[in-house]
Specification:
alpha/beta, UDP-galactose 4-epimerase, domain 1, 2 domains, seven-stranded parallel sheet, two-stranded parallel ribbon, 39% helix
C-alpha cells in the first residue's frame, strides 16, 4: 500500500511505521523529522509545517494514497484542513481519536464503540469528540472515506505509564520508588485500568488499513487485560527490582483540586474511572488479533530501556515537592 502518516513517530505510530516498513509498504511521513532517525530506512520524508496548509498542498501535489492517517490532530479545524488537502487523494482517511472521549462517569463498566461520547471533565476529550462528529458528517454528506480509531492508555519503551505524574513525565515517580520515598496512587488503587503495548496496537491498526469494511466506522483498540492501579504500580516496582515500596492513597478529587497539573481531565475524566473494553468489533474486522504482551512483561522491557538511557530519566523537582506536600497534608497516620 501507499501510505501517508501525519506524524508517524509518536508512542502509538512509531510501532506502526516500523512494522509497515518491515512489510515493504510505501510509507510517507509528514512531520518535523525530530524522531525520523529512529526508524528503519525506506520511508519517504515530507518535511513541512502542517500548520501551513499551502505547504501541505504542495508536498502532496500530484500524489494519491491508499491510506492517510493523522496522528496529531486534536481540534476540528485541523481535520477541516485535512479534508481540504486530501479529498480525492486517498481511499481511506484514519483519524486517531481517544477512548477518553467515552462517557464519564460510565453507565456500564464494559465499554463498546456504542458507549456514548460525553466527557464533561476534559476539554481534550471533548475536542476529540467534536473532531469525530465533523468527520462522520463529511462521510455521510460527501462520502469522505473516514475511519476513526480510539486508543486508550498505550505505552512504549521510552516512558513508564502511570496514573499521576508531573509535567516532565513519569521518571520522577520511578525515582521516588528507587529512593524509598512514598508514591501517590489516586483513589484506593482498586479501580480497573487497561494498558496496551504499542506493538499490540500496531497489529490491529495495520489490519484496519485498506479494509473497506472499516470505512465510516469507529473502533477502539486495546488489550483485553484489566489491572487495578495497585497491580500496575506493583508491576512497576517489580520491574525496578524493588522489594518494598510505599503507596500513599489520595482521592482523585483532592489531587485535582490541589495541583496545577491537568488532573481534573486526566484523572476525573479518565484514569479515576474503571474501564474494561469490549474489543469484539475490531476482532471481527481483523481476525486473529489479540494483544499478547501482558503488562508485567511489557513494563519490564520499558523499565530496562529507561534505566539504560539517561536521557529518558528526566527529573522533576517541582512534582517531587508537590508529592511530599500532598502526602504530608492528606496522608498523616
Amino acid at each position: 500500500m501507499k501510505i501517508l502518516f501525519i506524524g508517524g513517530t509518536g508512542i502509538i505510530s512509531m510501532a506502526i511505521s516500523k512494522n509497515l516498513l518491515q512489510q515493504g509498504h510505501e510509507l510517507y511521513l509528514m512531520n518535523r523529522g525530530s524522531r525520523n532517525d529512529e526508524l528503519p530506512k525506506g520511508f519517504i520524508p515530507l518535511t513541512c509545517d502542517i500548520n501551513d496548509e499551502n505547504a501541505m498542498q504542495k508536498a502532496v501535489a500530484d500524489m494519491d494514497f491508499d491510506v492517510v492517517a493523522d496522528f496529531i490532530a486534536f481540534v476540528p479545524s485541523q481535520l477541516e484542513r485535512d479534508v481540504r488537502v486530501f479529498r480525492g487523494k486517498t481511499k481511506q482517511f484514519i483519524f486517531i481519536s481517544s477512548a477518553s472521549a467515552y462517557q464519564k462517569p460510565l453507565a456500564s463498566h464494559l465499554i463498546t464503540e456504542s458507549t456514548p461520547l460525553h466527557n464533561p471533565y476534559w476539554e481534550y476529550s471533548r475536542n476529540k469528540h467534536l473532531c469525530e462528529q465533523y468527520l462522520m458528517k463529511e462521510y455521510r454528506e460527501t462520502g469522505f472515506p473516514v475511519t476513526i480509531i480510539r486508543p486508550s492508555h498505550t505505552y512504549d519503551e521510552r516512558s513508564i505509564p502511570l496514573g499521576v505524574h508531573g509535567d516532565c513525565g513519569s521518571w520522577q515517580v520511578a525515582k521516588r520508588m528507587l529512593d524509598g520515598k512514598p508514591v501517590i496512587i489516586h483513589g484506593d488503587g482498586t479501580s480497573l485500568w487497561t494498558m496496551t503495548h504499542n506493538s499490540d496496537f500496531a497489529k490491529a491498526f495495520i489490519g484496519i488499513m485498506g479494509n473497506i469494511h472499516a470505512i465510516g466506522e469507529a473502533f477502539h483498540i486495546t488489550s483485553d487485560e484489566s489491572l487495578s492501579w495497585n497491580q500496575i504500580y506493583q508491576c512497576i516496582a517489580d520491574a525496578l527490582g524493588i522489594k518494598e515500596w510505599f503507596p500513599k492513597y489520595i482521592a482523585s478529587t483532592t489531587l485535582a483540586q490541589n495541583s496545577n497539573y491537568d488532573l481534573t481531565g486526566s484523572l476525573l475524566g479518565d484514569k479515576a474511572n474503571s474501564v474494561v473494553f469490549d474489543n469484539s468489533k475490531i476482532k471481527r474486522l481483523v481476525p486473529g488479533f489479540v494483544a499478547t504482551k501482558r503488562f508485567d512483561q511489557g513494563i519490564k522491557e520499558t523499565v530496562a530501556n529507561v534505566l539504560a538511557h539517561k536521557e529518558l530519566q528526566v527529573e522533576d523537582e517541582v512534582f517531587d515537592k508537590w508529592c511530599d506536600l500532598m502526602i504530608e497534608k492528606y496522608c498523616r497516620e
